[in-house]
Design brief:
alpha+beta; 5 helices; 15 strands
């Protein structure tokens, strides 16, 4: 009888146990990630109001007639100005522009959705990048010397802008290789737009004539046809003139 009672109690206990709800195992919800997409940059290169090519003869503000054979430069420090005046930086994104090679467009990636009121960037790079280890960049990176041919191995720094051509009056070449981290030139353009899911397209213009004027006209014959310095009078004057070479035309989906 005792044995039978024990069996009955055991069955009852087992039944009660099996009726209990299984414990719910909870997991943390995955963190939300910001929705991002791209910003495509298109740059038109002009000499005054005339598109740049390498067969046309141009008259500079100094009234000197020239042709161009090379124009290339580096851009860095891209950012967007948020509606509250804070900045969204696009860290470690760079651009190498070479007009003759047709490299006049590039993509900025991982742009968060939001409302923006401006776009900023720089010609050139900061001191840490300028004097950093170039071997860290793959061969197709904008800062790879193999890719851009804008690095002074003897000086240990990048050429920010390379502008070369010929003056027609005396058939002599000019070569302006402009560099020096202290000469990094910053730009910021007020422009209100909303970044949604689709990629945006921004069109900018670069007026090469402005390198030779504003605030001062530069005369190649009188002031020098070359520079490979970071601080000589030619470099200083041309960098000062470069502060208004860019303008922004539009930004849209």
């Amino acid at each position: 009888m005792k044995k039978l009672s024990y069996i009955i109690l055991s069955l009852i206990s087992l039944g009660l146990w099996s009726c209990q709800e299984e414990p719910v195992v909870c997991c943390d919800a995955p963190p939300e990630t910001a929705e991002v997409s791209d910003l495509n940059i298109f740059i038109k290169h002009l000499v005054g109001s005339t598109p740049l090519d390498f067969t046309t003869e141009y008259t500079l503000p100094s009234m000197e007639e020239v042709t161009f054979r090379r124009f290339s430069y580096l851009l860095s420090d891209f950012y967007l100005v948020n509606s509250d005046d804070s900045k969204t930086s696009m860290n470690d994104q760079f651009a190498y522009v070479d007009v003759r090679a047709g490299k006049t467009t590039f993509i900025l990636s991982d742009i968060p959705k939001g409302n923006y009121k401006g776009l900023g960037f720089s010609i050139g790079v900061d001191s840490a990048i300028n004097h950093g280890n170039t071997n860290q960049y793959p061969s197709d990176h904008p800062l790879s010397p193999i890719n851009n041919s804008l690095y002074w191995s003897w000086e240990g720094g990048f050429i920010f802008t390379a502008l070369e051509g010929k003056t027609l009056a005396n058939d002599e070449s000019f070569i302006f290789h402009l560099a020096g981290f202290r000469n990094k030139t910053n730009f910021e353009f007020p422009l209100s737009f909303t970044k949604d899911n689709p990629a945006l397209n921004a069109t900018l213009s670069y007026d090469i004539a402005e390198i030779f004027q504003n605030p001062e006209i530069y005369n190649i014959a009188n002031e020098g046809a070359s520079t490979h310095s970071t601080s000589d009078p030619v470099t200083n004057k041309l960098f000062l003139n470069m502060r208004d070479v860019f303008s922004i035309n539009s930004i849209s989906e």
